[in-house]
TrEMBL record:
Subcellular location: Nucleus
Family designation: Belongs to the methyltransferase superfamily. NTM1 family.
Gene Ontology cellular-component annotations: cytoplasm; nucleus
Domain of life (superkingdom): Eukaryota
Enzyme superclass (EC): transferase
InterPro entries for the chain: MeTrfase_NTM1, SAM-dependent_MTases_sf
Name of this protein: protein N-terminal methyltransferase
Pfam families, per the entry: Methyltransf_PK
Compositionally biased region (Polar residues): 10-20
Catalytic reaction annotation: N-terminal L-prolyl-L-prolyl-L-lysyl-[protein] + 2 S-adenosyl-L-methionine = N-terminal N,N-dimethyl-L-prolyl-L-prolyl-L-lysyl-[protein] + 2 S-adenosyl-L-homocysteine + 2 H(+); N-terminal L-seryl-L-prolyl-L-lysyl-[protein] + 3 S-adenosyl-L-methionine = N-terminal N,N,N-trimethyl-L-seryl-L-prolyl-L-lysyl-[protein] + 3 S-adenosyl-L-homocysteine + 3 H(+); N-terminal L-alanyl-L-prolyl-L-lysyl-[protein] + 3 S-adenosyl-L-methionine = N-terminal N,N,N-trimethyl-L-alanyl-L-prolyl-L-lysyl-[protein] + 3 S-adenosyl-L-homocysteine + 3 H(+)
UniProt keyword annotations, A-Z: Methyltransferase, Nucleus, S-adenosyl-L-methionine, Transferase
Amino acid sequence: MCFGDKNKHNYISQHGSSPKRSSRLARQQHAPARGRQRGRCGHGSSRANKEMTSRVLSSPGAESLREAGEVKRAGLRGGRGGRGGRATCCCSRKDGMGDIADGEGSFYSNAEDYWREVPPTVDGMLGGYGSISSIDINGSKAFLQKFLGDGDGKTGTDCALDCGAGIGRISKRLLLPLFKTVDLVDVTQEFLDKAKTYLGEEGKRVGKYLCSGLQDLVPESGRYDVIWIQWVIGHLTDAHLVDFLQRCQKALRPNGLIIIKDNVSYEGVVPDEVDSSVCRDLQIVHRLVGRAGLRIVHAEQQTNFPKEIYQVHTLALR
């Protein structure tokens, strides 16, 4: 499953209470001082997180973890009660997460369970940070419009795919204004049902509502000018992310683009047991893109986001 326009912010720092939302965007270096608060590992750690970490480290496919040679503690704001009972101390690796073997099933099912508890609202999709939606959309639009047009080498505007679409926030404000047809995919049926009303009249131009996890999704070959993947790659294992990107490449039209917009950690991989996801550093993301046989044609860092959240980077791939 994959769980897309599900921005991982920490609501606690500004609002003092926790929504039912993810906090994966919270800057890891800010959290250790809060480790005494209701953490999910480290201080007051949960057995489930420790067992998951153990499975990842011992799994046959976790070569990159073993090569890293060390596990260090890093703070990550989070908690249950809606993503973020407050802080969590999580394990950060200096290399990739590896392929979760024994724990792969629970990695996905736990995430699916988490997202079922999130309200189908814009504030729910943005973890209580609904106020940043316009900043996010404007940055994405400026990035995307660099490539769209009718000239030589330009990307067409016939059809786009919104991966991890949630209730359709990105489709409504970014993709539908630019493309003739947009397909939405999300693992949570309730979000897709909400999207049908949230999108209003523009929803008539939605081609497909697909309820699927990205690790299982096979996009239609040659259908899409742009495949937009935002705040969702952390819900895929390394191997599944590489495989999904390869399938996306086959789904592109000539001059098509895959766009990844997501959080990046400052070093290594930071797992979040709360919503069963990870945050990778930029070097690791680049390496996985290369393993998929894709190249980065342009990259930018999103600006004007709150200082307490992770950096967010946007990559255009072909």
